[in-house]
Structure formats: C-alpha cells, structure tokens
Amino acid sequence: MNVLLSGGAGYIGSHAALSLLDKGHSVHIVDNLSTGSKLLIPKNAEFTNCNINDESKISDLIKSDKFDLLMHFAGFIQVEESVQQPEKYFENNTNNAIKFFNTCKNNGLNKLIFSSTAAAYGSVREKKLIDEDTNLNPQNPYAESKIRTEKFLFDNQDKFNFIILRYFNVAGADKKMRSGQISKKSTHLIKILSEVVVGKRDGIEIFGNDYNTPDGTAIRDYIHVSDLADIHAEIAEYLLENLESNLFNCGYGNGFSVLDVINTANRIYQNKIIYRFSSRRDGDVEKLISSNSKILKHINWKPKHNDLKEIINSSVKWEEKINASDT
Ligand SMILES: NC(=O)c1ccc[n+]([C@@H]2O[C@H](COP(=O)([O-])OP(=O)(O)OC[C@H]3O[C@@H](n4cnc5c(N)ncnc54)[C@H](O)[C@@H]3O)[C@@H](O)[C@H]2O)c1
Question: Helix, strand, or coil here: 119?
C-alpha cells in the first residue's frame, strides 16, 4: 500500500506511519510543522513540508506518485484553545480539511481515513458505553469542527470512500521509543503526569472534582497510540477491499478517572505526582467510554497494549528520552 499521510510529524500520525512502514507499506507525509516536529518523522517515510490547503503543491505531489489512499491526521487539537479561538479551528479542521479532500479527489485520490474525535459525543449520561449510534452533543468548537468535516464526507458519499475514526483518549509512546508526544503545551493528562515524573513540572492541576463520577473527577477511555496506529493499517486494508464508507469508535471500553490514572502512576513512581484540584475547564465533559464492538467485528484487530500501567510507563520513558535530549 502507498499511503499519503497528513500530519505525520505529529503524535498520532507519526505512530501510524511507523506501523505502516513496519508492515512494509510506503508512506509519504505532508505536514507544515505547525505543531509537529521533523524529529517525529520516521526515517523511511517521504516528507513534503506543505500546508494541506496548498492546492498546487498537493496536486503536484499526487500526480507524481500513485497513492492508494489518504490518511488525514493534520489538524489542531487543543480543546481549551478552540474555546478561545473557534475560527482558528473551523478554518484548519474543517475548511482546510475539505479543501484538501477535494484536491485529492480532483487528482484521482478519493479513498481516505479521517481522524475524528470522541469529543463529538459530548457528555453522555444515559449510556454506560458510547456506541457509534449515540447522538452527537459537542461541547466545544474543536469537536464541532470535526463534526462539520464528518458531515461533509457523509454528504459526499458518492464522491469519496471513507472511514471516520472517532478516537477516545490517545496516550503512550512507541515501544522502541521512535516517537511519542512532544508538544510543550499539551493538556493531555498522561503527558503532563510524565512531565511531573521526570521533574519538568512540579505537579498536576485536576480540573474539577465535582463531576457526577465515583471520585468526582472526569472519566476517560485511554487507548495506547500504537494500538490506534495498528487500527489505521488494518482499516486501510478493509477500505481498499470493501470500498464501503463507515464510521468506527477507537477505544478499549475501559473508563479511568483522573484520580485512577494518577494513583496508578503514583504506585509505579513512588508518589512523585503531587496534585491539586481546581475548577472545571470550559468544554470538558464528565465521562467518555467507548464501545468498541463495531470495530472488533469489522476488522482483524486485537489490542496489544490495553494496560494502563504500560501506557503510563511508555509515556514516562519517552519523556525521559526527550528530557535527556532537551527536545
Ligand atoms: N491526541 C488525541 O488524543 C486525539 C484524540 C482524538 C482525535 N485526535 C485527532 O488526531 C489527529 C492527530 O492528533 P495529534 O495528537 O497527533 O496532534 P499533533 O498536533 O501532534 O499532530 C497534528 C499534525 O498536523 C500538522 N498540521 C496541522 N495543521 C496542518 C496543516 N494545515 N497543514 C499541514 N499540516 C498540518 C501539525 O504540524 C502536526 O504535525 C488530529 O486530527 C486530532 O484532532 C487526536
């Protein structure tokens, strides 16, 4: 398979590129390095430094090679920033994405996998696990920007074959330490916790301890980034074989509260993680746990890293690595 992959200098895109390359596929990354880094681009991938909205460069690139499909990871991902600057999110995550899809289609590339988010579901009280039929209830412009892009795809099913993947909380790092999270302003719990363990931060702020959950802190379904990366390789084969558009959740179906995660890390790292409570963040929701029965039924994928301790450990090891090299 020859894959055009946007956002491959970022966290999840670089892991997906590694998974594809490890399986013998070819990968050409398009990224403008706005939040990504050249350091995360796998050695064996081709790379073009370019904005996805650059119609002429993208057209030339597609004409110069024969791609089987597009994996679209490029986008902005910070919920709180999206509340402060919604237009920035609609411009990049919706308008640029749609322009990119159309450029690809106009050059004969109409099969794609789109990175969406479980934030599209918002807070779901009545269901224990969120399946793909759950009503959407976005609580922030980030989630809304992704839903608008999904809607474009659903409205254009005659023009594209696509798979939409709604990721739950992605965490952890490549086992061989070839990639991990590098963002210096990440708001992801396990990344921040890892920074505390290696001494880059003094402690963690927990936003909200008055949610309607057993310990009052918000609950999430954490999926290891390498399992998510493998899903992309499998789902690509599925799309190329079946040419059937579809939508899947990506999670394990396990919920952990913020305190569960911190307590687990404190057991491994001798209570190094000091925390304090502060008020809820704008746009955050109470509980997001995935049902993954649909994806398990459709593709040949079994989680290999469904273990919170392993997720935390790999993230801390990566943090130690980038701390030592001052990345
Ligand atoms: N990280 C998560 O937990 C999570 C959860 C749900 C969904 N997602 C989605 O997964 C995708 C990847 O997320 P990530 O965590 O790897 O983010 P990231 O910021 O690490 O990577 C995004 C990459 O896209 C690039 N990019 C952004 N806008 C671009 C543009 N206009 N042109 C070219 N390149 C551009 C950035 O430089 C970066 O390398 C995003 O679409 C995000 O919405 C992530």
Answer: helix
Q: Is 145 in the pocket of ligand 1 (CB under 6 A)?
A: no
Answer for the pair 315, 179: CB distance below 8 angstroms, yes or no: no
Say how many C-beta atoms besides its own lie within 10 A of residue 313's C-beta.
17
89 included as an active-site residue: no
Atom of ligand 1 nearest to the CA of 33: 37
**Is residue 159 situated within a structural domain?**
yes
**Is the pTM above the cut of 0.85?**
yes
The token duo for 246 is 């579809």
Q: Is 89 in the pocket of ligand 1 (CB under 6 A)?
A: no
Instruction: Quote the CA–CA distance of 47 and 207 in Å, as a whole number.
Output: 38
Range of the domain at 86: 2-171+223-252
Region of poorest pLDDT, from 68-72, 209-213, 248-252: 209-213
Number of domains observed in the structure of the chain: 1
89 domain residue, yes or no: yes
Helix (H, G, I), strand (E, B) or coil at 320: helix
